[in-house]
Amino acid sequence: MKILIRNGTVVTPNETVETDLLLAEGRIIALGHALSTDGAVMVDASGRYVLPGGVDIHTHIIFDIDATGPDTYFAGTMPAACGGTTTIVDHMAFMPEGRALEQHIAAHRALAENKAAVDYGFHAVMQNRDEASLQRLKSLPEQGYTSIKAYMTYDNRLDDEALFKLLRRTNELDMLCAVHAENHDITTLLRAECKAKGLGEPKWHAKSCPAHTEAEAVSRVLHLAAMADDATVYIAHVSSALGLAEIRKARAQGQKNIFVETCTQYLTLTEERYCDKEKGLNYIMSPPLRTQADVDALWQGLINGEIQTIATDHCSFTTADKARGRGDFTRCPGGAPGIEERFSLLFSEGVAKGRLSLNAFATLIAANPAKLTGLYPKKGALVPGSDADFIILDPGFNPATEYTLSASDLHGPSDYSVYEGFKLTGRIEAVYLRGSCIVHNSTYLGKPGDGQFMQRGRNMFPG
């Protein structure tokens, strides 16, 4: 079936133009005026923006920590669809003791198959330090897994030697190595000191993970990547001005292949949220929320092109899960939902407030993450041949159309949103996945299994 999206303002990373979009068999066939309408279903997008479907390359739908959250691959991705994200690249959970990476990948594929509401891929995870595990990575790219995640903190972290060996190996295989960069020893010490002193309120979470613990770890992994012949490294969820400064310093010294992600929460929330006696635990995540100066520095980093993507680090819990940390923040599971809020919140805070152009917005939320994970231009683009993944959005710049974000209007299984009460401009009217309208006026029209596994290629982003 042909579909013609008429009279919309089509937004790509390079241009914003009022034109028509012709779709057939799940792909974009043509852009332009006077396109053939024979047998086509007409959709009027007058006064609306037509934007590429969002690509979120940092989610945790299923994870293995003490508190198991409420998400499944349908319950976690259906809200993504409702929020304008049509593709995710999910971070696999840590592997159980004795499980091989191949088995772990197969287990995640089985959980998502015939369940996901949007298209999906996976970052592999590296927690083993043996040479055999490094050698087995050779088969991943041909299977469509062209990125791998390493942690510098938590029980399954890699020490410097293991991380350096991994970076050398991913460089050999032309893979993207994503890194959670925090100084484990110092944060562990500071958390233990807080606990010993009875400092259990949520605000001590931020104080026990100061920005220097991020910046030091960022600096360290960048030096390791440089020694690994400028291995391609993706610094996940940068939260601080200090962390960004270390990246800036490495680039100024000529280091290449450094890519940077920040997340919605670090652009919109500050550490004052931890002082809320009722809801402070809801904001516990790693890295923690920072100061307004850090928020401002990250926005400037986006404007300057120093940060390539905005993701969510979506990790869903309920308030009951979070309540485990009442009186002892170290017992609170870290993470927060956010997969549904990202697109609308960043359009409102970025485009509507004049911080980002429409083209920059489309770049950060769709094109760049697709390029970094080998999905472009199948995903993240509105060009002939691309998958027909797009959003029709009413910009609603009239102040009278402003509305308030509320967890009660969201579609996920969590019972709260860390963005509760934000005033938003711009409403998503329709979401299309491979040419099918799966969301209309906030009503989900799709079904489990609409999402397909994405066979990913290499990082297409110039270093």
TrEMBL record:
Cofactor: Zn(2+)
Post-translational modification N6-carboxylysine, affected residues: 149
Keyword Nucleus: no
Keyword annotations of the record: Hydrolase, Metal-binding
Transmembrane segments: none
Keyword set includes Cytoplasm: no
Maturation and modification: Carbamylation allows a single lysine to coordinate two divalent metal cations.
GO molecular function, one term: hydrolase activity, acting on carbon-nitrogen (but not peptide) bonds, in cyclic amides
SUPFAM superfamilies hit by this protein: Composite domain of metallo-dependent hydrolases, Metallo-dependent hydrolases
InterPro entries membership: Amidohydro-rel, Hydantoinase/dihydroPyrase, Metal-dep_hydrolase_composite, Metal_Hydrolase, Metallo-dep_Hydrolases_sf
Domain Amidohydrolase-related as annotated: residue spans: 49-434
Pfam families from the UniProt entry: Amidohydro_1
GO cellular component: cytosol
Family classification: Belongs to the metallo-dependent hydrolases superfamily. Hydantoinase/dihydropyrimidinase family.
Protein name: Phenylhydantoinase/dihydropyrimidinase-like protein YgeZ
Organism annotation: Candidatus Desulfovibrio trichonymphae
Gene that encodes the chain: ygeZ
